[in-house]
Amino acid sequence: MTRSRFEKIAFTGLGALLASAIVLGVTHVAVAQAPADATYKGMNLCVLCHKVKHPVIAEAFPKTAHPKALRTPDEEGAIVAKFDEDSPVSKADIAYILGVGKRKQAYIGKDGKTLPGQWDVKNSKWIRQEVVDGMTQCVPCHVTGMDMKTKAWNEKGITCESCHGAGSAHATTGDKTKINNPKTLTPERSAMLCGQCHARGTTLDGTMPRSMTYKFGDDLSKHIKLAEVKGPAANQQYNEWLGSKHATSGVTCTGCHDIHGPGSANPGQLKKAEKELCSGCHAADLATPEHPKLTDAMKCGLCHMPQGTHTFKMPGQ
Ligand code: HEC
Ligand code: HEC
Ligand code: HEC
Ligand code: HEC
Ligand code: HEC
Ligand code: HEC
Ligand code: HEC
Questions:
Q1: How far apart are CA 165 and CA 155, in angstroms?
Q2: How far away, in angstroms, is 195 Cα from ligand 2 center?
Q3: How far is residue 222's CA from residue 15's CA, in Å, rounded to a whole number?
Q4: 61 close to ligand 3 (CB < 6 Angstrom)
């Protein structure tokens, strides 16, 4: 079997990097932090090196929903909606596609505004989409490395550097102190990393739905005023979770979700299948005579996460 050219580069590069990492290791112990002047390099480069050291991450992450959060019509199969003469959206007008299309899919036209229809996947029908400036109101949470001055971004979708920070300083050296590792965050700050996008709210000046000043490790509440949870709605997992006993017990988003494998292939990217995951921590609660007996088909979320809500309330609460 012959290795591809790219793999050869990765292997030789890694050899040299690992040698320098040993030297760095004895002289320099620091908290991983991407330097402020680092630039975005893109997922392909991260995958190129990491398929050697973290084959599961490199293999699994590109298949998840995150990198497909924004696509263009030239990508095969990206548009999941069906069109006819009554559709509120014409296929030819689509410039960008928002959402991989698990539940919904929305579209942005060539003028940067959202097109007036959203595709409801489950019910296979069009629903209303408010026409807003997609470049400021939608795209910032669906791409990596957004520059609000030029309204340009480095990479479509949520890729490695959305969570790990701009990677130029790390990717040219392999120095692990020059990249952000969420494992170094407290549970509270780790959830904030996800909450920068998985929350409803506005910037403190009220102009944007996502803060562009928030940086890895920051206190999100200094950048975003969170909206109150008024009932089940999309994209407010962080708002909901904050009010749950999981938040006060340090069970964060990554306590249940696996960002990049091997569990990321499970429904909802859960670390384990739902029942196994929840029972792992709640065996004693389930064994009480008060707890309803469960059939195989009953998932925990049926009663404790109605409509996917992350407040983890008790039934009836
Ligand atoms: C030239 C090869 C190379 C490239 C390109 C590269 N990495 Fe790394 N990365 C490494 C090496 C080597 C390590 C250290 C692995 C170890 O010893 O655990 C590492 C470690 C990491 C870590 C763990 C840091 C820690 O605290 O342990 C993260 C996160 C990471 N890389 C993310 C990325 C991202 C994101 C990109 C793309 C911007 C990227 N890497 C590109 C080689 C590379
Ligand atoms: C930069 C914005 C951003 C950040 C940061 C972010 N996400 Fe996401 N996430 C999204 C978007 C946008 C989607 C929708 C992808 C789609 O379906 O097209 C998504 C989808 C998901 C999904 C898939 C849900 C499904 O449909 O199955 C999970 C799970 C998830 N995110 C968890 C997390 C966790 C946990 C973190 C923190 C470690 C995180 N996300 C950080 C923007 C973000
Ligand atoms: C949505 C946020 C998010 C994205 C996107 C993301 N990661 Fe991560 N990554 C995390 C989190 C959170 C952790 C900490 C481990 C955990 O809690 O699961 C992590 C940990 C890591 C580690 C350290 C693993 C270890 O064992 O210490 C590496 C390496 C890494 N990621 C590489 C990547 C690469 C390469 C990509 C893109 C192909 C990527 N990540 C995309 C959130 C993300
Ligand atoms: C604050 C960040 C943020 C903003 C702003 C944002 N989104 Fe999202 N979007 C997300 C996250 C996170 C998800 C995944 C979680 C969910 O669906 O509950 C998502 C999911 C979606 C999905 C569903 C994807 C799927 O696979 O089912 C669609 C469609 C969507 N967004 C369209 C839009 C549109 C249209 C706008 C602008 C009007 C917008 N988004 C603005 C963060 C954001
Ligand atoms: C105690 C476990 C647990 C915690 C903590 C948790 N989730 Fe979830 N999450 C789930 C389960 C279970 C589902 C449903 C999975 C499915 O689709 O089958 C889910 C679904 C999701 C989805 C898919 C859309 C939806 O609403 O159904 C997103 C996005 C998500 N979670 C993001 C997050 C984020 C962000 C956090 C942290 C603020 C978080 N989750 C914390 C268990 C958890
Ligand atoms: C990593 C361990 C862990 C996982 C995984 C986990 N939980 Fe929890 N859960 C906790 C802890 C700790 C508490 C708080 C304990 C307490 O207050 O009694 C809690 C609290 C709860 C509560 C609130 C109980 C109350 O008295 O209000 C519910 C409901 C719940 N969990 C359901 C779930 C469900 C459903 C899942 C799977 C989607 C899940 N948990 C996954 C650790 C976990
Ligand atoms: C058919 C609905 C239903 C399903 C499905 C369900 N529960 Fe419950 N759960 C309840 C009810 C009702 C209670 C309150 C019982 C009581 O008084 O202790 C409860 C209580 C709990 C509590 C709180 C116990 C306490 O004393 O604080 C936890 C934790 C919990 N369930 C976890 C789970 C987990 C994990 C699963 C999945 C394996 C699950 N539940 C599935 C209905 C359900």
A1: 13
A2: 9
A3: 42
A4: yes
Q: Write down the pLDDT at residue 317.
A: 79
Instruction: Return the SS3 of 313.
Output: coil
Ligand 2 nearest-atom number relative to CA 163: 5
Cα 111 to averaged position of ligand 6 atoms, centre (Å):
46
In the chain, helix, strand, coil percent, each to 5? 40, 10, 50
C-beta of residue 270 within 8 angstroms of C-beta of residue 261: no
pLDDT in tens, 121-163: 999 999 999 999 999 999 999 999 999 999 999 999 999 999 9
Torsion-angle region of 151 (φ positive above 0: left; ψ -120 to 50: alpha; else: beta): left
Q: Let me know: does 193 contact 185? Beta carbons within 8 Å.
A: yes
d(CA 80, CA 179): 36
Q: Are 31 and 183 in contact (CB under 8 A)?
A: no
Q: How many Å apart are CA 289 and CA 205, to the nearest integer?
A: 51
The structural domains of the chain, with segments of one domain joined by +, span: 1-63+160-181, 70-140, 185-317
2: pLDDT strictly greater than 90: no
**Which comes out higher in pLDDT, residue 8 or 199?**
199
Question: Do the beta carbons of residue 240 and residue 229 sit within 8 Å?
Answer: yes
Q: Which long-range contacts (CB under 8 A, 24 or more apart) does 2-5 make?
A: none
Mean pLDDT of the chain: 90
- Distance from residue 301's CA to the centre of ligand 5 (Å): 10
Beta bridge partners of 12: none
Backbone φ and ψ for 194, nearest 5 degrees, come out as -75, -40
pLDDT tens by residue, 213-239: 999 999 999 999 999 999 999 999 999
First to last CA, the chain: 60
Please tell me if the CB atom of residue 57 comes closer than 6 angstroms to any atom of ligand 3.
yes
Could you tell me how far CA 5 lies from the centroid of its own chain? 31
